[in-house]
UniProtKB/TrEMBL annotation:
Coiled coil: none annotated. The chain crosses the membrane at residues 23-47, 59-82, 94-116, 349-368. Keywords: Membrane, Transmembrane, Transmembrane helix. This is DUF4407 domain-containing protein. Residues 404-436 are annotated as: Disordered. It comes from the Bacteria. It comes from Rhodosalinus halophilus. Residues 411-427 have a biased composition (Basic and acidic residues).
Length: 436
């Protein structure tokens, strides 16, 4: 006794017929919809390719059109293959193979089309984002250079304090408070010599304060213009040209501010403060007085060394400050900008990829529906799957066969043909094909 396969219920057969009807209606416009998607992707690909080409001649336009047409045809053919073949696969191995092929094809579509679509959708905004980020970098560089220059200008107070200390000591020496000899002798001359040197350095530092502020104001004005260029209406390519010119000017301002820093000058002056002291001739009348002057000068030199060390340390602290970051504006195309700032344009990337990979959803929907249809018809007999139209066609064919079989003996008698075997006279009815 053999075990027969379970027969599907009438409700399962009706559901399978209903799904087949839906698929037949959907298949009537699926190809047209796929063509529209492929054409739209090709148009945006054309716009993206144009942003990459430097030449605007007829040859470049033809090259962009050829590339976009190739992309549209490739997308249409690829997804047409998937829509037809993937749902028809019955084995797991075959489906996994086609699924891998669909993954590779999707990656190829993203590589040749989607990123160009994103460039067409958000290319100008991405370039403006690049300009805005560059403005921020230049602003940080300008502010850092100004901070270092102002810190160096603050050394003027340290120089003034050391100068004032030597002037005070010289005043004391003039009254005899240091060497015990009132007047303007050797010790007084040494103290005045260093006070004069420090006074000249102080004047030089003060003279650069106005230059530092003027350079900083000019840099801020350039930054304001650069910010305006990032949001002005009009083609971003023309704005990028002027932006590049302003960036060059601002880079020169930053370099000027770095050169206006007086910290290296103060450091060298502090090193020379004690090393370049010109010792005057002792002018005391007696040996004892000259001995007092020598001792006082030695003490003054020690004070010079201490002041020089303090001043040099202050200048070294300014020199050790981190320099402004090196900032350089690099023009960038719309396609490159979209890739560089992809995280800022996620919706545009999603739309560009979706227009190319949306048919993948249709492939899975069709595969699931075909699987449901096959499951509903599994084990069904031929007579259970016949539709009314198929039954009418079968009855019509049967009538034609019967008519032909009735006319066959009369035709054979008229031509005196030998009588055939009765088994051979019986017409063979072709089996009725099973519907999907």
């Amino acid at each position: 006794m053999t075990q027969t396969d379970p027969q599907p219920s009438p409700s399962q057969l009706r559901a399978a017929r209903e799904l087949e009807g839906h698929l037949g209606w959907l298949d009537s416009f699926t190809g047209a919809a796929l063509g529209v998607l492929a054409t739209a992707s090709g148009i945006y690909t054309y716009l993206g390719v144009q942003s990459l080409l430097d030449d605007t001649g007829a040859m470049s336009a033809f090259a962009a059109i050829a590339y976009s047409v190739a992309v549209s045809v490739g997308i249409f053919v690829f997804w047409s293959y998937m829509l037809r073949l993937f749902p028809a696969m019955r084995s797991t191995r075959a489906r996994m193979g086609l699924l891998g092929a669909m993954g590779l094809g999707s990656l190829a579509i993203v590589a040749m089309s989607s990123w160009l679509n994103a460039a067409a959708l958000a290319g100008s905004a991405a370039v403006e984002q690049h300009l805005a980020n560059t403005v921020q970098d230049y602003q940080q560089s300008l502010e850092r250079a100004h901070e270092i220059a102002v810190s160096a200008q603050a050394l003027e107070q340290d120089v003034a304090r050391v100068r004032q200390s030597f002037e005070d000591l010289s005043a004391q020496e003039a009254e005899g408070g240091l060497s015990g000899l009132a007047g303007r002798g050797s010790v007084y001359s040494l103290l005045r010599q260093k006070a004069t040197e420090l006074g000249a350095l102080e004047s030089q530092i003060a003279a650069q304060s106005a230059q530092v502020e003027a350079a900083f104001d000019e840099g801020n004005a350039i930054l304001s213009r650069m910010r305006a260029l990032t949001v002005e209406p009009g083609p971003v390519e023309a704005r990028s040209v002027e932006f590049s010119e302003q960036a060059v000017r601002l880079a020169g301002i930053v370099t000027t501010l770095r050169q206006l820093s007086v910290a290296p000058l103060v450091q060298r002056a502090a090193q020379d403060l004690s090393a370049s002291a010109v010792l005057p001739e002792l002018d005391g009348r007696t040996e004892a007085v000259r001995g007092d002057q020598a001792a006082t000068i030695e003490a003054v030199l020690e004070v010079l060394a201490q002041r020089a060390e303090t001043l040099e340390a202050a200048a070294a602290a300014v020199i050790a400050m981190p320099p402004p970051p090196e900032t350089r504006y690099t023009p960038i195309s719309a396609a490159d900008a979209v890739i560089l700032y992809a995280s800022s344009f996620v919706p545009s990337w999603a739309g560009a990829i979706a227009i190319d990979l949306l048919p993948a959803v249709l492939v899975f929907i069709l595969a699931i529906t075909q699987g449901a249809i096959r499951q509903g018809r599994e084990g069904a007999r031929v007579e259970d799957t016949l539709t009314l139209a198929e039954l009418r066609a079968a009855l019509g064919a049967l009538k034609e066969v019967e008519t032909a079989s009735d006319a066959l003996p009369q035709h054979a008698h008229d031509h005196e043909a030998p009588r055939a075997d009765p088994a051979e006279e019986a017409p063979r009815v072709a089996p009725v094909p099973r519907s999907r």
